[in-house]
Amino acid sequence: MSPNPEAVLSVRDLSVSFRTDARTVHAVDHVSYDLAAGEVLAVVGESGCGKSVTSMAVMGLLPPTAHITGSIRLGTRELAGGDDKAYGKIRGKDIAMIFQEPMTSLNPVLTIGRQIGEVLRRHQGLSKKEARARAVELLDLVGIPAPAQRVDEYPHQLSGGMRQRVMIAIAVACDPAVLIADEPTTALDVTVQAGILEVLQSLRERLGTAIVLITHDLGVVADIADRVLVMYAGRPVEQAPVDELFAAPRHPYTRGLLSAVLRPGASAAADGGGKRRLPEIPGLVPSLDSQPDACTFAPRCARADERCTTARPGFKSDTDDAGDGAPHLAACWHPNTLQEAAQ
Amino acid sequence: MTTSDIALPKARAGLFAGHPMAAYVLTRVRQSVITLFLVSIVVFAGIRALPGDPALALAGEERSPAALAAIRAEYGLDDNIVIQYGRFIGHALTGDLGTSSRTGLPVSDAIGQALPVTLELAALSLLLAVVLGIGAGIVAAVRRGRPAEWIANGLALLGLSVPTFWLGMVLVLAFAIAVPVFAASGYVPFGTDPLDNLRRMVLPAIVLGSGLAAVVMRQTRAAMLDSLSADYVRTARAKGLTRREVIGGHALRNSLVTVVTVLGLQLGHLISGAVVTEQIFVLPGFGKLTIDAVFTRDYATLQGVVLCTSAAYILINLLVDVAYSVIDPRIRLGGAK
Amino acid sequence: MTTALSLTAVRSRAAGSAKLRALRKNRLAMTGGVIAGVFVLAALLAPLVAPYDPAQPDFGNVLAAPDWSHWLGTDDLGRDQLSRVVFGARASMQVGVLAVILAFVVGVPLGLLAGYYGKVADSVVSRVTDTMLAFPFLVLAVGLAAVLGPSLTNATIAIGISQIPAVIRITRAETLRLKHVDYVAAAVANGGGDGTVLFRHILPNATSALVVQATVGIPAAIIGEALLSFLGLGVQPPEPSLGVMLSSAQAFLAPAPWMAVFPGLAVVAATLAFNLLGDGLRDVLDPRGATR
């Protein structure tokens, strides 16, 4: 697969491994995806499946112990292999990221205004005064009341939800083409979560920002994603438009993920607090020490046969795919057919 | 030490309700005054607790009955002990610390002459310790696991293990005797001849500053390692800030909070070190005044010097605490969530 | 009650052997330990190790450079430097250990008191600690030497007293922490008396922090002794002490630099050894203190 020239972000065969004294951990194993302008791609999977590492690799924020191969194209620029200096000109300007921990992601000893202004001064060469004025606008944009006062406050004076809005303001300050949101609502109260998602939605509509949304919350996926990439044990297992994935999941793992959510009676309320978390699937996630020439999900899969444990399935679309628009890809030797899945 | 270790006074209702900073400073000032009061009692009682007649102690070598009577009258030694203490404090507050039995001159004059020497020595050492210690600490943290870190760590360990007075002798051997670049003794006021002044002050400043530099380096390194792995540093990198901006503007800024505290705690060692350093390099400062007072049994001077030193120490600690709250808005503005 | 007791014991014993193994792996700490051991041995066996009488002058052989008969040279009175360094080390160790013991004997009970009972006891002890800390170490020592007169014993007392505040603070902090640990709380709930709780549950578990403090305290005391003796406030000549040797070396820096170099190296080696050992112990025993 060659990079897609029309995509704003095109990741091809991205692999990340960490070498420690004793062993090598393959955290991400040949992940590919494209992101179109203004599109929201949700990356889902259990914790440890490599979804965060993938986006940290895209941002160039992994520690030096990480070994990265493959291609990461932002527009026409190749990011993979770039050092901090090369990344410094792109991060915050063309691609930005917000994190899971709003409470600790802001510097406690600097004002909100300074932390937003910093990115503007770095990438747009604004003066201190201009940066401050723009920071007030940005705070307003992300829905923070009384922005002219808030701009001079310190992070500890703001609630978690407000801090996450500040993080979003920092991320979109330079109007980046791509925004990566790593579990942006996980650490927040349920009531605050909806507000944050709304902000992301409106930014996509008003600024045309493409968003990679990393989450394990399928409710969030259903709310705002256009397409979904499902990951398991460092590998992509399924990718499809959101409606298609929910209606007709083809990989057994995806089916497992969705079953609890789709099963009658397992409503949001029954789960407590309205969070639809990934359900338990019997068995353990395999260790990431080796890259077996097999389907990594086979040990937990009811459909697994000999081929599943001796050959790695390709990540491809089904031949009887409807063929309208985005492809529906799955890495499985025995995927559900459309008819089967639709039942 | 983390910020949570600092006892924050509860915001008071009333006058300081909206000003947690003012309330904090007020509390610290009050604590300092109490400590200073206790210190003055200890100093006062220390001289009175000397075996034998305090008049004998205060008189020093002059033991004639007439002299003793004069001293008794001057210090009012026949009065009630509480009245004596009141008078002592009263005089001290107006700058009257008594008369030196060795020189016959007011103790406050001797202190006034010694103070600039010690202050210059302390300032130079502090400058050296801060520049060297913070610089090496940053390098050690940023270049973790590389030779630069090992060198910085090794130097710090050496700085902590080498006694100041021996370092002084070795430096004199190397730079004043073997290769006479600097002078080994004596003092020339900066105003008289700045170059000669520095030529004489460089070695003492290195001797006095090295230990402090080691402590500052270790603390900076630990604090920087902490903040470099913090989430907000990741945010700073994600903003595309340069390495310099990430390290200087974000990581260092936070680390300084702890470093300033340690500096404050270490200033006592600086005062102790000054005594020895002045002795080695024959500088007519506070330390020399103290030691000379001990050996000539000049108790009035000793009393004054100890009182002044402790007062300075308490004052410095107070200033450090205030500086601390200026750096950290969570203390300045209160209500850390 | 018994269960809580034996659990505490088992826990600390199992953890203890693991910690010992971790310490053995730390090469720097082991090097420090070996040097410190040599220092302690030399101090204990000084009369056997020293080749000459440290106080015996030899006026025919003053300020002799190091050679085969006097490995570290002789001083201004022709005394053998090696023998004086060995006996000086003895004095250093004596002060180091005794001063730390003094600081612990006074500081630990006060720290336990302040931490365990809190309230009035805590405020009184904390105020006293603050006042003591308001005197820089040397000012305190100088004052004491002035009041008590200069001698090895008084130097030990002065150094010991100067270390009391640190011991109080650490003991108090550990007590405050341990008071809320489950098994201590369980012992209290089971009706353990204050004495039982303090000495059977809290003190044994505070050992780690206190051992680390001791390894910091000993080198500080060694330097303190050398310093006070150097200033003439500690050991009095002709008694050998590293500080006294350095003090007399000052007058002969140019003609006899070895007089200054070797006793100084001995002090540095001893403090470096204890600091290395202390750093290693701290990493193993008290990870929270690692940033201090």
TrEMBL record, chain A:
Which positions fall inside the ABC transporter domain? 11-258
Name the keywords, alphabetized: ATP-binding, Cell membrane, Membrane, Nucleotide-binding, Transport
Q: What's in the GO CC field?
A: plasma membrane
- Per the record, the major location class is membrane
The GO annotation for biological process reads: peptide transport
Q: Which GO terms describe its molecular function?
A: ATP binding; ATP hydrolysis activity
**Positions in coiled-coil regions:** none
Q: Does the keyword Transport apply?
A: yes
> Which compartment or compartments is the protein found in?
Cell membrane
Name the protein family: Belongs to the ABC transporter superfamily.
UniProt-listed NCBIfam families = oligo_HPY
What is the name of the protein in this document? Answer: ABC transporter ATP-binding protein
Source organism of this protein record: Streptomyces sp. NBC_00119
Lineage, uppermost ranks: Bacteria, Bacillati, Actinomycetota, Actinomycetes, Kitasatosporales
Automatic annotation (TrEMBL), chain B:
Q: Which GO terms describe its molecular function?
A: dipeptide transmembrane transporter activity
What stretches pass through the bilayer?
A: 33-50, 121-142, 154-178, 198-217, 302-327
The superkingdom of the source organism is: Bacteria
Q: What are the ABC transmembrane type-1 domain coordinates in residue numbering?
A: 115-324
**Coiled-coil ranges from the UniProt annotation:** none
Q: Where found in the cell?
A: Cell membrane
Q: Tell me the InterPro entries matching this sequence.
A: BPD_transp_1_N (IPR045621), MetI-like (IPR000515), MetI-like_sf (IPR035906)
**Bilayer topology term:** Multi-pass membrane protein
Q: Could you tell me which Pfam families the record lists for this protein?
A: BPD_transp_1, BPD_transp_1_N
GO CC, sorted alphabetically, is: plasma membrane
Q: Which UniProt keywords apply?
A: Cell membrane, Membrane, Transmembrane, Transmembrane helix, Transport
Keyword Isomerase tagged? no
Q: What protein family is recorded? A: Belongs to the binding-protein-dependent transport system permease family.
Q: What name appears for this protein in its UniProt entry?
A: ABC transporter permease
Which source organism? Answer: Streptomyces sp. NBC_00119
